[in-house]
Amino acid sequence: MKPGYNKILLMKLTTKLIVLLFSVILSLFFLSYFSNSIAKRDANTSEPLILAMHEPNQITKCTLNQWFNPAINDEEGVRLLKNCSHCHMAGYKEWINDKHSMSQSNPFFLSIYSGTDKEGNENIAPGFRLDHPKQNGNCILCHNPEAALDNNFDIDLRNAENTNGISCNFCHKIESIDKNHLKQGVRGLTISRVCKGQKEIGFGPLNDLVESTDIVEFKYNPIYKESLYCAKCHDGFQGNTQIYSTFTEWLNSPAKKQGIQCQSCHMPVREHTAKKIHIVDNPDVKSKLRPYYQLHSHSFLTNNPHKFRKTFLDLKIKVKVKNNILKVTAKVINKNTGHSFPTGSPMRNALLVLEVKDENNNKLELIKGPQLPVYAGSLKGKPGRLFAKILSETSNQYAQTHGEDGIRFRKTAGTLGIPAQQWWNIFILSDTRIKALKNDISIYEFFIEPHRKISVTAKLIWRNTWPGLAKVKEFIIKEETLIEKTLLL
Ligand code: HEC
Ligand code: HEC
Ligand code: HEC
Ligand code: HEC
Ligand code: HEC
Questions:
Q1: Do residues 422 and 238 make contact, with C-beta atoms less than 8 angstroms apart?
Q2: How many C-beta neighbours within 10 Å does residue 178 have?
Q3: Binding site membership of 93 for ligand 1 (Cβ less than 6 Å)
Q4: What is the residue with the minimal CA distance to atom 13 of ligand 1?
Q5: What is the DSSP string of 414-446?
Q6: Could you report the per-residue pLDDT of 353-377, keeping only the tens digit for each?
Q7: pLDDT tens by residue, 228-245
Q8: How far apart, in whole angstroms, are the C-alpha atoms of residue 53 and residue 218?
Q9: What is the Å distance from ligand 2's center to 73 Cα?
Q10: CA distance linking residue 372 with residue 180, whole number of Å
Q11: Given the CA of residue 92, which atom of ligand 1 is nearest to it?
């Protein structure tokens, strides 16, 4: 043994002890600093502490990482390499034109929530806030989930901060789904949010990623390929009444039996000429060359919504003349295996309209057969059928507790062709929408004079809302003629 070895050993030990002591003192200092700052912040209600899951089953008090803006011009996002568009530009372009990106700023939605019109004039019923001046409602759970999470699920949507709607960041933090139907929207989703400074965790459908960046780590999660992923926001209840039912319709559909998911139709493989692609379109970033079918569209109604809307529909008309009676049989076919037509918001509706004219352009009179109800607006009374879920209010007593404008509105809504609103005390009066793979047959009779040339025109029209509602809110109704057929005889 070399002389002085013990001395060196002793010196090393003392240094270690000093370092240890120093770290203990430092830790104590930081601990007291943080508990102090926690106490200070607890007292200061303007900056609340948020509970975050940062590791499975571990709840920690921390300030959460902010939601990031996927836009390329977001400065912080660019600096931190968090703006999705920096690396996934094609997906960003689709999403920014899709309604998920507009959910928090959608002016029509906000006018219904706030009780305003397009110009922002106040007290224009219907409006959730006109009926419930003191409640924030549950609309935010699906329409602005980022703000809902940041505000304990309860905030006035009119004052909610300007989030990015249903963003890339939000959707790709969905970790699991609670099957309890009472947990709607973001309440039924486990969102993986971490404390500021920690590595973000995201999820996606691929299980063989090239190494993630230091800032975000993406993990494989099979739910991204399942309809259940969409269920929390595309099924929704008010009490026992199911307002939104697209996911339930799918559960009972032939598509479910065949294993066809929402994503199969709404997020199809993005069109490509190449057989091999990169899911990252920034050439400076390392990524794999993958088979083309691993890249999916984020335009949920595809890049041609009009064409998409009519993909699974058909309309057939047959005519028969006997004595002086023209009998028209119309059949509307929903070839969509996934859900009813129309689906989504209960204000979506579709119409079959028949017009029978003689050679002088005179309309023939209907003597037997269905006619369009008041909800069809100016088409009311015309021969045809309305396909819609109509809500109605159970009792007027409920209305008595509401604001004045809301009560006044209830008295005229029916005559304006506006069914009950989804937040009222409602039940489903009728549901004439056409179920998956079913059809609707209607028969009409017209009186015709002999030896006249007749034309029979049938149109299938889709509308985003009720004409009466669009009118009181001063929005232009979105109307699409999906199919038009004419027979000459
Ligand atoms: C409404 C939720 C939702 C939003 C919003 C969303 N995604 Fe996705 N994303 C999905 C789902 C679901 C899949 C899986 C699709 C599949 O595999 O069928 C997916 C797949 C992906 C993939 C894997 C490759 C592929 O195309 O399948 C990438 C990359 C991706 N998304 C990026 C983005 C970016 C970037 C944005 C924003 C510009 C975004 N996502 C917005 C739900 C969403
Ligand atoms: C700096 C570039 C970069 C940025 C910024 C970026 N990504 Fe990615 N992303 C990648 C790379 C690289 C991959 C892996 C590519 C591969 O394996 O082919 C990837 C993969 C993904 C996947 C697939 C995950 C899986 O397991 O299926 C998703 C989803 C995704 N990114 C979403 C996002 C979202 C959402 C954002 C914004 C919040 C974002 N990315 C921002 C580079 C980036
Ligand atoms: C966090 C809630 C949420 C999730 C998750 C979600 N959606 Fe949506 N979705 C919405 C809302 C809210 C709208 C309406 C936005 C608006 O019109 O302002 C919408 C609109 C749509 C639309 C209509 C129009 C359009 O342009 O996009 C389709 C189709 C759709 N979603 C399909 C899906 C599918 C398929 C999934 C699952 C892969 C999904 N959504 C996941 C909340 C969600
Ligand atoms: C077989 C293909 C297919 C499947 C599966 C499918 N959809 Fe659709 N979806 C369509 C088509 C086509 C339309 C347009 C016609 C219509 O409005 O019904 C549509 C319309 C919608 C709309 C209404 C959009 C609007 O403008 O109002 C929503 C919301 C929607 N789908 C969500 C879903 C969800 C959520 C699932 C799964 C639970 C799903 N879809 C499954 C094909 C499909
Ligand atoms: C369970 C989730 C959920 C809840 C809760 C919810 N919505 Fe929706 N809402 C949706 C989805 C999904 C769509 C889009 C469906 C479609 O495109 O047909 C939608 C569409 C709408 C639209 C049509 C928007 C447009 O541009 O055509 C209005 C208006 C609306 N919701 C109002 C409300 C109000 C008001 C509340 C609260 C009283 C509310 N919603 C609560 C999921 C929800």
A1: yes
A2: 14
A3: no
A4: 224
A5: HHHT----TTSSEEEEEE-PBPTT-EEEEEEEE
A6: 999 999 999 999 999 999 999 999 9
A7: 999 999 999 998 999 999
A8: 17
A9: 18
A10: 38
A11: 38
Least confident of 8-17, 122-131, 219-228, 404-413: 8-17
Residue type, position 481, single letter: T
Average pLDDT of the residues in 144-164:
91
CA 255 to chain centre: 20
Instruction: From residue 229, give the alpha-carbon distance in Å to each of 185, 191, 232, 236, 261.
Output: 11, 12, 7, 14, 10
* Nearest atom, ligand 3, residue 224 CA: 38
Atom 2 of ligand 4: nearest residue by CA position: 265
Residue 278 to residue 288: CA distance in whole angstroms: 6
Query: Could you give the CA distance from residue 6 to residue 365 in angstroms, rounded to a whole number?
Result: 115
Considering only CA atoms, which of 419, 399, 469, 391 is closest in space to residue 117? 469
Are 438 and 411 within 8 A, CB to CB? no
DSSP 105: T
Q: What is the radius of gyration, based on Cα positions, of the chain?
A: 30
Find all residues with CB under 8 Å of 292, minimum gap 6, and list them.
Answer: 269, 272, 274, 275, 276, 277
Q: Report the C-alpha gap between 473 and 103 in whole angstroms.
A: 18
Q: Give the residue carrying structure tokens 């106490």.
A: 39
pLDDT, residue 60, reads: 57
For residue 488, the CA-to-ligand 4 centroid distance in Å is 34
For residue 3, is the peptide bond before it cis, meaning its omega torsion is within 30 degrees of 0?
Answer: no
Q: Which amino acid is at 327?
A: K
Q: Which CATH superfamily is domain 306-388+432-488 in?
A: Intracellular proteinase inhibitor BsuPI (2.60.40.2360)
- Characterise 249 by phi-psi region: left (phi > 0), alpha (psi -120 to 50), beta (else): alpha
Tokens of 449: 């004079």
Q: How far apart are CA 465 and CA 345, in angstroms?
A: 9
- The SS3 of residue 21 is helix
Strand 389-393 vs strand 426-431: parallel, antiparallel, or unpaired? antiparallel
Closest CA to 352 of 435, 437, 440, 284: 440
* d(C-alpha 143, C-alpha 151), whole Å: 14
Tokens for 30? 């930081």
Q: Which atom of ligand 1 is nearest to the CA of 84?
A: 35
Nearest to 320 by CA among 448, 439, 441, 460: 448
Domain limits, CATH 2.60.40.2360, in the chain: 306-388+432-488
User: Helix, strand or coil for residue 370?
Assistant: coil
Place of tokens 């109704």: 477
Three-state DSSP class for residue 32: helix
Is the shortest distance between the CB of 344 and ligand 1 below 6 Å?
no
